[in-house]
């Protein structure tokens, strides 16, 4: 049986509810009537929301607004208020009860303020769960990416960080921040954060600036063939005290390592948006995982490309991060977690301004010597233009003030080490 705890649940005997909100979103005026007989009605396919008598009797169901792993969202109108539109989410039937309960609890407690979606009602019918929320008309992500301006990006940043600052202040980690989960109405300049099924509640008193690595963790990442020796044993052992084993410096795992305790950590999120500490299986993850995801979202807007990174697995994701943000910060973070990250090359990271221009197919000015590393690393860079991080300060000085502000906020979001990454509270101060 699903346990929704303190969230609003309408029983199957309730035929109609008044979705008019009372007060500040914590009270609902619900009026019940006897169910209307369904005799003579055409059978509806079981996968349609109108196959539910509660939905069919109370709503006119329109088209699909969106769909994802956790279910489908429909535009609906209440039969007694046909002029008002709402959004109804039918959660996928394979959702775990804890995810359903989490989403409902977060919406009921915190919805309707600080760019958080407002809930009006929830209903369970056997193994089906429906959530009725505000209808938020928004601009498609593809359209935003095609023509977003710098002032729009700044406003987008401000509003997303405001939503995260509020949630984090309540002890909530969203864990799935990305463009499709932060709706933007371009004509009305309004925003809405959605999808709270992966949220995690932690103690507000837990510092987001201090993390303790799991001492029993060992993560060997395969980046080359099984017979290729990546580095010397002495190099691998630096900074990591472990019992002698047979796989140091080789891209394979020995019996000693396979018997080490496994880490069971939260790795929720969307590939390409998950923070490095999530990929490296940090046990003590905090609100800062949302800040990284917000930074990747901002990077997508700047690049006008969604997603910027599309890794096939966690190893590839770490490799892409190492190219963009530098291999040394990733390796240092792994060592803090008592993990070993094996790589056959070192890369200093990219000049973010040049990287954004390259993704947008804009001209990249040549500064200093030509770079064979960048020529080999980036397709089409036949003239060997250097995009290494060393030129970033010079590139930032060439930008207009508002564009420079965007990049400064971006850099503070995308600090690899979560202990150094800025909080939503700190970043929000950039707009005051």
UniProtKB/TrEMBL annotation:
One of its GO terms (biological process) is mitotic DNA damage checkpoint signaling. PANTHER family: CDC7 KINASE, ISOFORM A-RELATED, OVARIAN-SPECIFIC SERINE/THREONINE-PROTEIN KINASE LOK-RELATED. It is an enzyme of class 2 (transferase). This is non-specific serine/threonine protein kinase. PROSITE patterns: PROTEIN_KINASE_ATP, PROTEIN_KINASE_DOM, PROTEIN_KINASE_ST. Belongs to the protein kinase superfamily. Residues 59-432 form the Protein kinase domain. One of its GO terms (cellular component) is nucleus. InterPro entries: Kinase-like_dom_sf (IPR011009), Prot_kinase_dom (IPR000719), Protein_kinase_ATP_BS (IPR017441), Ser/Thr_kinase_AS (IPR008271). It comes from Loa loa (Eye worm). ATP binds at residue 89. Residues 31-51 are annotated as: Disordered. Its EC number is 2.7.11.1. One of its GO terms (molecular function) is protein serine/threonine kinase activity. Keywords: ATP-binding, Kinase, Nucleotide-binding, Serine/threonine-protein kinase, Transferase.
